[in-house]
Amino acid sequence: xxxxxxxVVSLPSPAPLLSRTGWAAFLVALIVVCAVAPVLNLLxxxxxxxxxxxxxxxxxxxxxCYAICALAMDLIWGxxxxxxxxxGLFFALGGYVMGMYLMRQIGLDGNYKSExxxxxxxxxxxxxxxxxxxxDSFVATLFLIIAVPGLxxxxxxxxxxxxxxxxxxxxxxxxxxxxxxxxxxxRNETGFGGNNGFTDFKRILDIPVxxxxxxxxxxxxxxxxxxxxxLMARWLINSKFGRVLQAxxxxxxxxxxxxxxxxxxxxxxxxxxxxMCGVAGALYVPQVGIINPSEMxxxxxxxxxxxxxVGGRATLIGPILxxxxxxxxxxxxxxxxxxxxLYFLGALFIGVTLFLPDGVVGLVKRLSKAASTSGDRS
Length: 378
Hints:
378 residues, globular, 2% strand, mainly alpha
């Protein structure tokens, strides 16, 4: 066959990052986070019905941190098929790195008027441990917030994926890793505050933390970070890299027969997912004012998976919605009916697994499809 007779193969055009409706929704969310919420909180009087309380700002800010974790979980579970029950560790590591910086920012304002954190003075420590070396630098802290969870995830993931550990075995190992880290951080001699952790924060960049303007600044930064990670996730999933991830999820053996090595793809998305959780933890700590080893509890990691399952895996927007739905319900139920919260959480997970395998987003899609079908028939 001559060169002119060769068949022409037309490759599909790359999918847009967002549809026109998607960009409109994204801009609305950006305006709400950056303009509407600050105005309602800082400028609208407290007695006005449209006033956004400080409690509301803190609650939504925390849930947006959770939503980042849920989005990270969707990348590794929804699109790659790897269920992690250890993402709470990466969240806590980012929080501890930020907490160390905030503790150094206290300076001489602590109870013991020492350059050392109060818990170190109480334990009769004379110098800072080696891993506190760069804790007084904000630039180094920003780097370590990403580097520490990323390095831990990379080392763990390399040996786990290289050994082809998958399925329920991988989930159990990640949960064991998180539990072991929690026990380690509970020990006073590790230099992380023991069971009390870090608290009583005063300043960020010499700016007081407990002020409405700083609270709103953290809120806006968290919202922008969530939206930025959402765009990054969309870009990753729409790329060739994302298509290989979904192929690994659906048929890893066939991917290997096609000449791809799944190790690099799985390790990369696993590390990126851990880094996202680290950033979420760093944004979470100054908003809640405390970080302790309980953030590494296996229950917290399981809850991250529940957010993704409730919202809808492999949808990106679903886990974000799931974080808001479950965390919002938790905030109300733990106050109104604290003894029933865990029962509700377990029933929710079972109900979603049995009746809503595609989560809330899948339910909405089915209902809209049914409505359009009935409209066409009429």
